[in-house]
DNA sequence: CCTTGACCTTCCCGTGACTGGAAGCCCTAT
DNA sequence: ATAGGGCTTCCAGTCACGGGAAGGTCAAGG
């Protein structure tokens, strides 16, 4: 398979696939004309990486997960630890965003949103103490 | 004020303050020795930006908000629109993260996390259809 | 007067994970 | 012969900074 077909079948942009080769996540062969020649396993790996990325794992975590996936002697505990670490990370981000959301929606609700200049949002940003 | 004091009082790193000057968010004067010389209004602006950033606004949104803040003829509707757009953005991110969280925690719960190689997390990444 | 140390300056590189675009080769069809 | 689509590499840009080098400035102490 050439990169175009792999891109189509994995759902990843060709650019991204080239990048993944550059950083050593995959090692497709080359045809005589210099084109990348992907085997089924390459496609499989790319789909794996794509799903891991969709769950928010970093590239380095994907690298770790791929290595564990290919290691027949892995212990599932190690995989679970990686996943749980990431889960905690997700929870932290959700909490951060919810804090932002709470503050911001409070300000938004207080703002008339009309043609007058008075604005609780700007007051809140300028001085949260005074603006309440 | 020199940059150190402004950094302390605004809570922003000096590096960040220099960066904000570079991209034109603030324009502190210069002393004869070449040091940046910050006025009260500069500190005020920096605190404003810091709070907007803490709510997740991008730099460009901060620029817009600062301009609105300084425009006595603004309409609060415009501020509100910027804030609501950002609020929607936050909600999208929260939803994305919650989707990730749901899928990932499902996989984590299914994983024994022991010394054996069998791992539903890896199976889920390799092939979500088969792995369920 | 000299040094020390804290502060300040600019400049350049690196981050994560790509994305866009330019210049040019390969292959097939007409 | 040419047109097109696909492929290659390489370079630059994204966002919002952070790290660190090389060097100027200033006040205090010996």
TrEMBL record, chains A, B:
<dbReference type="GO" id="GO:0003700">
    <property type="term" value="F:DNA-binding transcription factor activity"/>
</dbReference>
<dbReference type="GO" id="GO:0005507">
    <property type="term" value="F:copper ion binding"/>
</dbReference>
<dbReference type="InterPro" id="IPR009061">
    <property type="entry name" value="DNA-bd_dom_put_sf"/>
</dbReference>
<dbReference type="InterPro" id="IPR015358">
    <property type="entry name" value="Tscrpt_reg_MerR_DNA-bd"/>
</dbReference>
<dbReference type="GO" id="GO:0003677">
    <property type="term" value="F:DNA binding"/>
</dbReference>
<keyword id="KW-0238">DNA-binding</keyword>
<keyword id="KW-0805">Transcription regulation</keyword>
<protein>
    <submittedName>
        <fullName>Cu(I)-responsive transcriptional regulator</fullName>
    </submittedName>
</protein>
<dbReference type="Pfam" id="PF00376">
    <property type="entry name" value="MerR"/>
</dbReference>
<dbReference type="Pfam" id="PF09278">
    <property type="entry name" value="MerR-DNA-bind"/>
</dbReference>
<keyword id="KW-0963">Cytoplasm</keyword>
<keyword id="KW-0804">Transcription</keyword>
<dbReference type="InterPro" id="IPR047057">
    <property type="entry name" value="MerR_fam"/>
</dbReference>
<dbReference type="GO" id="GO:0005737">
    <property type="term" value="C:cytoplasm"/>
</dbReference>
<feature type="domain" description="HTH merR-type">
    <location>
        <begin position="1"/>
        <end position="68"/>
    </location>
</feature>
<dbReference type="GO" id="GO:0045893">
    <property type="term" value="P:positive regulation of DNA-templated transcription"/>
</dbReference>
<dbReference type="InterPro" id="IPR000551">
    <property type="entry name" value="MerR-type_HTH_dom"/>
</dbReference>
<dbReference type="InterPro" id="IPR011789">
    <property type="entry name" value="CueR"/>
</dbReference>
